[in-house]
Amino acid sequence: MAIRSSRRAPPDGFTEVNPGGIDDLTISRDTTLNGTFQGEEPIIVIPDEDAGLSARAESPTLNLQFLNRFNGFVNAYLTGMDPEGRVAFIRADGSVYYPSSGGSSVPVWIPQADVRIPLEAGQQLNMVLPFALTSGRIYYAAGELSFAVVSTPIGEGIVQPAPNVLTDPSAGVNWGFVELTLTSSGVLYANISYVDFVGMPLGMELTVYGGESQSAYGVSSDAVGNICNSLSAQASRDLRPWGGLCLSSSGVPIRVVSPYLYHDLDANGFTTYWDQYGNDVWQKFRNQPLVIDTQGPRGHVNCYVQGDTLNCDGDNRGYGRPTARDIWGCDSGPFGKMSGDNDVHLAVIPRLCAAFVRSTLLSQGGEVQPSLGSSNYYLVDPTNHYSRIVHEHEVDGKGYAFAYDDVNPGSENASGTVSSGQPDTLTIFIGSPP
Ligand SMILES: *[C@@H]1O[C@H](CO)[C@@H](O)[C@H](O)[C@H]1NC(C)=O
Ligand SMILES: *[C@@H]1O[C@H](CO)[C@@H](O)[C@H](O)[C@H]1NC(C)=O
Ligand SMILES: *[C@@H]1O[C@H](CO)[C@@H](O)[C@H](O)[C@H]1NC(C)=O
After folding, report:
1. For ligand 1, is residue 157 a contact (CB within 6 Å)?
2. Alpha-carbon separation of residue 304 from 7, 346, 367, 370, 371 (angstroms)
3. Left if phi > 0, otherwise alpha if psi is -120 to 50, otherwise beta: which for 62?
4. Residue 6's pLDDT band (boundaries 50, 70, 90)?
5. In the predicted model, what is the mean pLDDT of residues 408-426?
6. Given this model, what pLDDT does residue 48 score?
7. How is residue 193 annotated by DSSP?
8. Where in the sequence does UniProt note compositional bias of the Polar residues kind (predicted)?
């Protein structure tokens, strides 16, 4: 008993951030959006009224409304790729800022004053997205978020904050983002997601011409603090480093990263976490079939463990036992896709991974996947307690808490997406859902 409690993590066990400078930015697929423009200087395009009108005839636009319901000042940053493939920031007045690295292969700061959209507490701001935008993000931060521009093989890249890098220049800031794409034919896709992290609470409402409004409100205003309390409580139950998923600044939690992103910070913390469960699942399906409901033309498919591999009828290849990292990300090991994978394989990956994440494989009825509803998810250890707890703090059940949260037996759908071909106004609730 004494030995046990001495191994216990500190009461909270949070991970403290340590923000650095421009050299601490991360250039990766997830953080760096690359466009085509390369100029000596940044360019600012101020929409001329006439040009604006003619441009509007060709390119769709979108009304945006930002409601600052956070308990204080917030900066917004709207960035993405314009119809010519150039990376840009759109400012409150609809003018567009095209950053330039001046050819620098190391990142160069983008001046705050050129790109931020300030929002006083309680303020409502209306602005127009002047053109179609791909890979768009609207960031919201209780402070200043650091963005840089770097020369890439194809042009300019905008280097954005990395949520799980402790030395990221923005690591000490409470921030979050909404992702959006407005296609050239005027179809809007906007989403909120907790697959990577929970930060500044953001909710959305979309009004649609000639149709019903859509919403995805996501987490409550005090979600980060409450999720961190629940993770600490879980850590004191199973002595696993759940509290470490909470990133804190001076001890105050500002962001919760998923176990998938936490793996980069602590590759050993959960290494053995799923081992016994994986063994038990493999043992169970040696003598009875695991039935995967492909929910498509291939119907139900039987899978059996032979040797150490799960093989499914009609599948082009089998599945090894997943590691913790495989289960957190659903994209590696047995859950990694390869070219040539057939439709059975592509149907099994999300369903098998979701069944692990939610720990329903050994439950009664768990031999058919998916078949059990959400009241059966996350009931036994081990499980993805991050996903369990994040869902507990969603006000409307919207927002994926792992990559295949859309796998369900019925019409349950945790998708935090709003989408329409006739979008009117996208409203973002910052800091607190309505
Ligand atoms: C953008 O370019 C950088 C540097 O070449 C690269 O590391 C990054 O993965 C690229 N981003 C994407 C989304 O491809
Ligand atoms: C969220 O939206 C972005 C931008 O449109 C898109 O790239 C991404 O795949 C979407 N994610 C989900 C889970 O729908
Ligand atoms: C869930 O809802 C999203 C957005 O409405 C949709 O794109 C997706 O296909 C739905 N998934 C399922 C499994 O119904």
Report:
1. yes
2. 39, 17, 11, 16, 18
3. beta
4. very low
5. 93
6. 59
7. B
8. 411-425
Quick one: pLDDT at residue 49? Answer: 54
CB 91 within 8 A of CB 115: yes
Q: Which fold has domain 273-380?
A: Metal Transport, Frataxin; Chain A (3.30.920)
Task: Choose which CATH entry (3.10.450.50, 3.40.1280.10, 2.60.110.10, 3.30.420.10) describes domain 18-45+59-219+415-428.
Answer: 2.60.110.10
Residue of 25, 27, 31, 33 to test ligand 1 pocket, by largest number of atoms within 8 Å of CB = 27
Establish whether residue 313 lines the binding site of ligand 3, counting it when its CB lies within 6 angstroms of any ligand atom: no
Distance from the alpha carbon of residue 151 to the mean position of ligand 1, in angstroms? 10
DSSP-derived secondary structure letter, 395 = S
Q: Which of 170, 198, 183, 180 is nearest to 66 (CA)?
A: 180
Q: How far apart are CA 20 and CA 419, in angstroms?
A: 38
Ligand 2 first shell, C-beta below 6 A = 179-181, 189, 191, 193, 400, 417
Strand partners of residue 300? 293
Residue 382, preceding peptide bond in cis (omega within 30° of 0)? yes
For 239-358, where are the alpha helices, taking DSSP H only? 259-262, 275-287, 324-329, 343-357
What DSSP state is assigned to residue 102?
Answer: T
